[in-house]
Amino acid sequence: MSGQVLRDGAIVDPSASLKLPSPEGKPTVTVLDYGSGNVRSAVRALERAGAEVILSSKPEDVLNADGLVVPGVGAFETVMRELKAVDGIRLIGRRVAGGRPVLGICVGLQVLFEAGVEHGTEAEGMGEWPGKVELLPADVVPHMGWNTVKVPEGSKLFAGVENERFYFVHSYGVQEWNFDVIQPRMAAPLVTWSEHGAPFIAAVENGPLCATQFHPEKSGDAGARLLHNWVEALRRPAAGGHADNTHHAEGSTAADTPSGSNPANGGTPAPESGTA
């Protein structure tokens, strides 16, 4: 196609938005291009998982793709500022309100919560879920390496990899999960936990909105299977184009309390530039 270039392995076409469906019949995924570094591995992992991937911040690409991935590396406040600069917060909110799948990764998970506290300064998040991102109370930070996770029953994101280890690079996390409003018609989010100094949220599945604190694209076969699960779910939307679980935290109940994790193993991928 005239005008196309390749950037970090993804198709970037300044003159045309992503077309649906893709020519090969693959689910289409936009990786939100707002300046987050080191997205090459995420783009390639999504392609291997069966998606046609575009790196873009154009509203039509963000809104029309089957799935949107929000990567994130660095400081909470910086990521929020960069998202605002490309109108990313509004676009993400529109997708979520319309039941269109979104997957946040690392700081892409953190900014979905109400606030982040770093170096004594609190920054406002998107507020999709209640809770604050705070420094992990561990002797050694960042938490860098492989760790086990405690997956709740019924998880579709972790199907087939419930007992596997995933790769983390972060110093901050959400350490509490409490919803005080219950609406019986809404399905409760599924919360996956891990532990480093204290239990923290490793992933959330909330209807069309999912997120992981770890990097699935750096988590070997387990991460590849998780991304495959997410991409395959884009092929099978529920009636009306919505995901299987009803979104929004207001209808949720508290998740099970987490347990400790087992010692990690496995090789260590090259870390992203910066930690969350």
List the helices and strands and how they pair.
Elements: E1 5-7, E2 10-12, E3 28-32, H1 40-48, E4 52-56, H2 59-64, E5 67-70, H3 76-85, H4 88-97, E6 102-105, H5 107-110, E7 113-118, E8 121-124, E9 129-135, E10 143-148, E11 165-170, E12 172-174, E13 190-195, E14 199-206, E15 209-212, H6 220-234
Parallel strand pairs: 3-4, 3-5, 5-6, 6-15, 7-9
Antiparallel strand pairs: 1-2, 7-8, 9-12, 10-11, 13-14, 14-15
Outline the structure in words:
There is one protein chain. The chain has 276 residues and is of the alpha/beta class. 20% of the residues lie in helices and 27% in strands. The protein has six helices and 15 strands. The strands form four sheets. It has a seven-stranded mixed beta sheet with strand order 4-3-5-6-15-14-13, with helices on both faces. Strands 8-7-9-12 form a four-stranded mixed beta sheet, covered by helices on one side. Strand 7 and strand 8 (121-124) form a beta hairpin. The N and C termini lie far apart (37 Å).
